[in-house]
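Practice record 12: protein with pyridoxal-5'-phosphate.
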Amino acid sequence: MSMRLSRSIVGEAEARAVSRVLLEDGYLGMGAEVCRFEEDVARYLGVKPQQIVTVNTGTAALHLAVEAVAAQCHVKGRQPEVLVPSLTFVASFQAITAAGCVPVACDVLPDTGTLDIEDAAHRLTPATIAVMPVDYASNPWHIDDVLAFAHKNGLRVVEDAAHAFGCRSLGRKVGSFGDVVCFSFDGIKNITCGEGGCLVSFDAEVARMASDARLLSVENDAQKRFAGTRSWDPDVKRQGWRYHMSNLMAAIGRVQLGRLEKEFIPSRRRLAAIYEQRLAGVNGLALLKTDPEDFVVRHIMPVRILRGRKDAVKKVLATRDIPTGVHYKPNHLLSYFKKSARSPLPATEQLYNELVTLPLHPGLIPQDVEEVCAAVRAALD
Ligand SMILES: *Cc1c(COP(=O)(O)O)cnc(C)c1O
């Protein structure tokens, strides 16, 4: 089988969990299994189950998070604005506009690909309500500085931690602190539910609003479903969405969560360490920087190919059947989000010209990564 850039790692255990829901429970929608998954995630992160709101995608988590924080902010006569690095999956930007807000594209630090706070500060306006840092390539780089910047400027923080489930910043798990933190459990993330995601809220009102909004804003519908009942005489006071997670997805997620610490994290870290060892100091290549105090579980392995050699390297890898990816085409270069760049984003555009994502997932063996590194080195020779 040829090498893959990324893939789901699922097997017998996930299949058994799904068939248990199908054959024994028989209720496929949002019920007891989702409740148990939320409890499991809460226990893993060391937070309360009421702080966890599971949904059907990471994008939905971001949408509900932005919508809930925006509901608490009052901006007169203008659409509320959210600061967000341009170097992210388009999901971050779409979630902001879905919530009726305006994404303001910010530059990134060239060494890490994460938000450049100084640049973000220059983009503040009276309409800015929130900042959405992205843990690019699973790097929670200086997240406390982002929280302090937000605090100082009266902003909410919706962290796009789609890459960062299982990571730690200064010993604290990503998702165990902050304001609102959003994870993705799509097919190729650090754990998967098939598709799926969740938000973790440190604001009870945001959690309550998002919990209702995922079920068409039917008040307390999630709590009733978890108790095995339904709302037959509900009230609805605002716009809501059909964003809830199903028991089938939760069954997969619970097994995946159980495999994370013993299997997925060591595997991703072992493979990333080989990349870092073999590619450190290679002429014409730069690794993205991480803080040695942080615990990074790489979801993707982007590296910088310097001096205009990116396409040449990609071509050599392709001839050896090694797939590469691009994370990401900056959002301000997409037609729909062109206006999000109010002034130039030089570091973002420079990185876009350099970044090549190399294969990384727990289905690879060390020998695969050695082969990729040898090919990269040969291409740069
Ligand atoms: C995967 C991802 C998302 C969205 O998650 P989905 O579950 O795919 O909707 C958001 N932001 C980033 C940076 C991602 O990688």
